[in-house]
Every structure is written in structure tokens, then in C-alpha cells.
Amino acid sequence: VQLVESGGGLVQPGGSLRLSCAASGFTFSTYGMSWYRQAPGKERELVATINGGGTITNYVDSVKGRFTISRDNTKSTLYLQMNSLKPDDTAIYYCKRAGFNVYWGQGTQVTVSS
Fold this sequence. Notes:
Blueprint: E1 2-6, E2 9-11, E3 17-24, E4 33-38, E5 45-50, E6 57-59, E7 67-72, E8 77-82, E9 91-97, E10 103-104, E11 108-112
Parallel strand pairs: 2-11
Antiparallel strand pairs: 1-3, 3-8, 4-5, 4-9, 5-6, 7-8, 9-10, 9-11
């Protein structure tokens, strides 16, 4: 199993980024997936989840209305569209595969700063 995140970077407040998580080594469509983030000095927190079919999503309150989780099962790729970014969104963002065995990607840095 391999999860590889990409798309992070430096963006000004109010800007947008789209993160991707390319999955391999398992049948992507049969697993729920999640995005987490970890800011400096803080614990890792759940940001958003999506079921295997992409029909059910959930978000932490702080990102509702600004972030959108989605997936393309034909490409085995998970996405996180982030709009109206705030400095508090600065963190390393990780994708995670649900299931009996949990797998994490290596993370991608998102920095929101002017």
C-alpha cells in the first residue's frame, strides 16, 4: 500500500489549493479515505472523510463550507479542494486509508501566509 500526497505550498490568506493523494497497492474504491492535518505543536486532527463510493462526506466544523473532499476511483486518487484559506489552516496535510490496517501518506506542507 502506498499513499503519496502532493499539491501543498505557500498561499496567501483567501487563496486556494488542491491537494491530491495518489493511492496504489489496494482496491481504492472499497475503502473510506480521510484527510488529516497537523500544525506545529498541535496534535494531528481529522479534517474530512469520504466513503468508498464518494457519496458520503464529513468535515470538521472549522473547514465546513471552505474545503471539499472528493475522489476519482478510476484514477485511485483522493482530493482536497481548499478555498478561502486562513493562516490557521497552516499544517502538514496527510491522507489516510481506513480499514483494519491503517495507512498514512508522508504528508504535504500547506502554509497560509502573507
